[in-house]
Amino acid sequence: MGLVQSDSIDRNRRGHSRFRNHVLCNNQVQGEAATEWCKLVVSKTHAIEILSVLITSLVLGYIGVIAGTNLIAIDTPPPGSLHVKVVARQFYWTFEYAPNSSITFPNGTTRQFPNGTSFQNTLFVSVGEVVDLEIVSLDVAHSFFIPQLGIHIDAIPGHDNRYWFEADTPGQYIIECTQFCGTGHYTMIGTLVVVP
Ligand SMILES: [Cu+2]
Fold first, then answer.
1. Mean pLDDT over all residues of the chain?
2. Which of 148, 43, 132, 58 is nearest to 95 (CA)?
């Protein structure tokens, strides 16, 4: 019984091998020469397959490392940035400046805040200043949107979203909430003041 099974497996293997060679090889080559020649073709085909998988893996790995490095670099604000926590609530924004922040106001005065400070619905920054935003919500989902600067980050309860920017043109820019957050959603409007 065992012999029959073994014979059967051998025949299957030989059949499979012949079929593969038949598919892979040139049908015009016959006999012993065909078998040797087909073995050579199969071994070369395997080598090409292994090589192509290796090269593809290396190229994809290289692209992955470059893309990952760039993504981390893009998300990391340059050193010396102004850290501001953007707190969304129904239905207003609070901008909390980190301790030791220095803020220049539209009247030209500059003040240091050793303990930090905060403003409701107005965010003051200077031209060319790197601003590191930490966007959070204390109640429901909101969305922090400055359409003129293309900044649009969700404010989600229990989750900190980070975004940094650098305004290069002085002026006032509207800040909106673009996530319907309740009956007063339409009043949730602030201003970004970019001081020269
Ligand atoms: Cu809102």
1. 86
2. 132
